[in-house]
């Protein structure tokens, strides 16, 4: 028996039978890279405000024990999986566990995450040691990126975190970083907190 194949366009299902959240979920699923609310609004023919509200509602739905999350970074959205399922997904895909980050790399990432954009001399001032090597490693791993140049002598490069940084640490956005008050409970001295904040 010959099997018939139909394209989605041939099915002629009315679009209006789907909620805004369902449409957003579909668009995020097929998007090859992070997309802005404006791009989604244009595709859907609605206002950007409606898209942003729909994304918030969809994000809340996903947080109710679902296997997807919406990640937000630098004005763009992407569909991801929860960090809690990373081991399951790695095992399913046959991936080896990602290499662990050194203490120096974690320290440098924390400085960049909380103080971005920041220059390498700024990172060195907080750490008290040269950060060239660890910064090159973080750049090669795609966890940090060059985001511009500072005004001043030599116009040093400014660094910030990336979407891969959020994915590596299971964050939906930079707003999910722990507040500084929690850092004190984790043994970070007030002086070190001040260096990270200032």
Task: Supply the CATH superfamily name of the largest domain.
Answer: Winged helix-like DNA-binding domain superfamily/Winged helix DNA-binding domain
- What average pLDDT do the residues reach? 84
Structural class based on helices, strands and sheet pairing: alpha+beta
- CATH top level assignment of the largest domain: Mainly Alpha
Query: Oligomeric form of this entry?
Result: single chain
Task: Give the tally of β-strands.
Answer: 6
Domain module tally: 2
Protein name: Segregation and condensation protein B
Keywords: Cell cycle, Cell division, Chromosome partition, Cytoplasm
GO biological process, one term: chromosome separation
Family: Belongs to the ScpB family.
List descriptors:
198 residues; Arc Repressor Mutant, subunit A; alpha+beta; 2 domains; 13% strand; 3-stranded antiparallel beta sheet
Which helices and strands occur, and which strands form pairs?
Layout: H1 8-11, H2 20-30, E1 35-36, H3 37-44, H4 48-62, E2 69-73, E3 76-80, H5 86-93, H6 103-115, E4 118-119, H7 120-127, H8 132-140, E5 144-149, E6 157-161, H9 163-169, H10 180-185, H11 190-197
Written overview of the protein:
- The protein has 198 residues and is α+β, with helices and mostly antiparallel strands.
- The protein folds into 2 domains: 17-84, Arc Repressor Mutant, subunit A (Orthogonal Bundle); 103-197, Winged helix-like DNA-binding domain superfamily/Winged helix DNA-binding domain (Arc Repressor Mutant, subunit A).
- The chain has helices at 8-11, 20-30, 37-44, 48-62, 86-93, 103-115, 120-127, 132-140, 163-169, 180-185, 190-197; strands at 35-36, 69-73, 76-80, 118-119, 144-149, 157-161.
- It has a 3-stranded antiparallel β-sheet, sandwiched between helices. Strands 4-6-5 form a 3-stranded antiparallel β-sheet.
- Strand 2 and strand 3 form a beta hairpin.
- It is globular.
- The termini are far apart.
- The mean pLDDT is 84.
